[in-house]
Amino acid sequence: MKPVYEAENALDANLAKGILNQMGIGAVIKGEYLQGGIGDIPLAGLVTVMVEDADERPAREVLQRWQNGELTLDTEHTEHHLPLQANHPAPVTAGQPFSRTIAAFLIGAVIAGTAVHLWYKTPQFSYGIDIDGDGVEDTYLHWQGDYLDREDLDRDQDGKLDGVRHYDSRGILSSWQYDNDFDGRHEVSGRIVRAGLSYEDTDQDGDGVADSRNHFYQSVYTMTEFYAEDGQQVIKRFIYRDKGVTYVELDSDGDGSMDIFHIYNDIDEIDTVFDSRAALMEEVSRRQRQ
Question: What is the pTM assigned to this prediction?
Fold first, then answer.
């Protein structure tokens, strides 16, 4: 299938699909349910109307005429045929055993659940889009059923992929990997831990062990940790608090215990050094109350 229309939202996509159906061209919508999954992120390029390969050219011509105002959707004669039993389940008669009713309900639920699962998990297709509008495809979308499964990114437009984002079965971002220095290796990888909480690891030297980890809450930096060579022991920790207060804990001798504490000023210079965490936290609290 071929994408012929990138909709602003689900309503826009259904209008485009309707005008195509009215002109005898079959169409499907991919990404219709992303609006509920990714909140306020713009949906342009993600909600797409698709047609069979052979219908691509006539579909584009129809949509162009529709956008030019030459065609309008005839809602009066547009019908949506739904199975009668979907909206009007058969009533239970007085003599029908209750256990039989429950059994029929459970069987129907299993069949419906299996059908929905197969529909949304069936491998579908992939296609590229031009996010920045320069005429070159830079993002490639891979779909499972009606949900976005993965995005491949070419951010520097050199024809080589330098980023990937993975989505869960609901079409919500779950993990990502980036090649931020464009050397062909993904040195940054991140994951959503649970609602609002995420982290991002960086392996700058390419030894397979994280050098540092950034922590986020609601996409805002909360802490950066730097690791020893084993990638386990934290030797430095930057903590970001409200009102721009940043403080640092440092394990200067590598014994696993933080022994140097200081606060940074507004231009990222060391402001005050403390000999204990208690003294540091007292000053942090004082500054946040100001």
Answer: 0.56
